[in-house]
Amino acid sequence: MNHNSKIQKRLVVLGAGESGVGTAILGKKEGYDVFVSDKGTITDHYKEVLRNFEIEWEEQQHTENKILNADIVMKSPGIPDKVDLVQKLKGKEILVVSEIEFASKYTKATIVGVTGSNGKTTTTMLTHYILKHGGLEVAMAGNIGDSFARQVAEYDAPFYVLELSSFQLDGIRDFAPHIAVLTNITPDHLDRYEDKFENYIASKFRITMNQNEDDYFIYDADDEVITNNLKKHPIRSRLLPFSLKRKLENGAYLEEGNIKITIDNNKFIMPTTDLSLKGNHNVKNAMAAATVSQLLKIRKVTIRECLENFHGVEHRLENVLKINNVQYINDSKATNVNATFYALDAMKSATVWIVGGVDKGNDYSELYSLVNEKVKAIICLGVDNTKIINAFGNCVDNISETQSMKEAVNMAYKIAERNENVLLSPACASFDLFKNYEERGRQFKEAVREL
Questions:
Q1: Which of 47, 195, 275, 276 is the most exposed place for a label (fewest CB within 10 A)?
Q2: In the structure, what pLDDT confidence band is assigned to residue 188 with cuts at 50, 70 and 90?
Q3: Which Gene3D superfamilies match (predicted)?
């Protein structure tokens, strides 16, 4: 029984996706008066969950008098700060937070937070995989799987690995991961940051803002955007960089084909040839995950075994099939130029490249040298491919267009020869022809299997 006569606090949740519904469940459990409001439609699955928990909800509208009386508002990461409703809430000084911030208040778990423009899903999944095999009771959440809030509500784990987007970090106030990982920073989502790269950089660095001297920050020391920002804005946590280019006293580096990690004279060594995931970017992901695992006292032999056995993330440089000695690779998760850079960089032979979709202000020039070196033909799969055709018209003779995945794969099948690759790595968002990058990747795999 709750004996204090305090008035029940009101939690309003904007957006009834995975993070919104999870927050509503946790809020209900913690004794809030909860109201969920979604401007779009709520899926039948989530409606049923909300009914089961007896949580009040509305869809296709935001009823302001039911929202502006909130004590705290959890806003879905998809809703920009500049919309009227959010501005009204801020004008009334009502606290607007992200699910990550809200949920972190109700767990005493040790949190590993992973952010970055690219590599964060692989690093999150790989870290979770190692910690789990190392015997820790660990859950994975954030941008991935069941929401953090729902997991805190239903079976709070002692350890979490959270994949965090810049939008989720924009909505934190006190959230502080014990270990923060920043994989890299390249221009992405600038439409949400007034087209200012420095705003996006600041957003990523929010992962460190509440850390103290007992916490750790693991980052790519080869990334000048990160290292310059650290010089300008020093942080309090202990720095553990990783690098492919130079030797480091504390942190992870590459030497003669070996990954070497040193933390307080504790050393870990592993040859990169033993890594199950190929490509330099995956050496970095492995360094980050192994550094976290070493901090959390996982046995070195376990870390090695996991790095040898981990099979990667669906839609991220995923080998689908080999047909007539041509390897088909699904990299649908490459929704920006930098991700595609890593994919092309990992190709060891001539490649037919399927590219295109919704362009987020891409600068394709950084791909020119790789395209010249590796790409024998380009297939544009998008509603408007003008920019791609203009960008690569001088690099590649064979450029064609289609708006059908099946046709794109059939075209590629005709062009690719023995020992070559067919790579779907769009460098763009998927919303022009597909629901999301997962659907795009699944259609690619289905089309390949039908060849």
A1: 195
A2: low
A3: Mur ligase, C-terminal domain, Mur-like, catalytic domain, NAD(P)-binding Rossmann-like Domain
